[in-house]
Amino acid sequence: MTVSWTPHRFSGGVLALDTANTVVLRGDPRGFDRFADPAEIARFAEAASTMRAAELGGRRLAAPEPERIAPVVLEIREATDRLFRNAVPAGAVATTDMPPFLRACAKGLEGEDEKIGGPGKPFGDPAAPIAFEAALAVSALSLLGEGGLGEGALARLRICPNCNWLFLDRSRNASRLWCDMAVCGNRRKASRHYHRRRVALAHGEAEREVDDV
Q: Rounded to an integer, what distance in angstroms lies between the CA atom of residue 134 and that of residue 140?
């Protein structure tokens, strides 16, 4: 089934977390992988070029052979999710999660000849596209570098209590709870309202039964 890559699907805050979140409801029997069809990797990259334009410095993402790059993309995705998901409750990155994460990112950069991190060019020269797997590796690694964990990104990492997605809380007072208030926040509020209504109705019915005795 073709995925609609709406803005909500890019609630992670950076490309690497958006990609980690392509597995929906991790750890839940209802969960599924939006990259199960490799063609979606190319469609995701196309949408991310716009949704993550600021992070990418305006550089487009290229994924012309999604089936070929799928194993590397998935390896980076899973290593990134494991590293940062484990870091949220611990408040620190586990060294045991680092080797597979670094090896996966190295595979994404292998064979690429890029100059990244220059002034105004965080992902290299925006005049030409960058391979999606390379950009994914750069995005993931950037979470550990200057402007990343060293400046409080780890403290701003969150796991959405509704969908289980990873996201960066960039709110002023770091109090954001949901990955997307308009979606997950409203769903959780609606669920709580429904539960309270059911409890109230059940309580009312019990009172009526007592009155009838």
A: 10
How close are the terminal C-alpha atoms of the chain, in Å?
A: 56
Measured from the Cβ of residue 167, the count of other Cβ atoms closer than 10 Å reads 24
Which amino acid is it at 202? A
Q: Which residues pair with 166 in a beta bridge?
A: 159
The whole-angstrom separation of Cα 111 and Cα 87 is: 30
Residue with token string 């009312």: 204
Instruction: Check: CB of residue 24 under 8 Å from CB of residue 36.
Output: no
Specify the amino acid at residue 55. E
Distance CA(140)–CA(121), nearest Å, equals 17
Exposed / middle / buried, residue 97 (Cβ in 10 Å: 0-12, 13-18, 19+) = middle
Give pLDDT tens digits for 96-107.
999 999 999 999
**Cα 75 → chain centroid:** 15
Residue type, 60: R
39 closest CA partner among 73, 10, 8 = 73
- pTM of the model as a whole: 0.85
Quick one: how far is CA 107 from the chain centroid?
A: 20
Give the helix/strand (H/E) hosting 130: strand 130-131
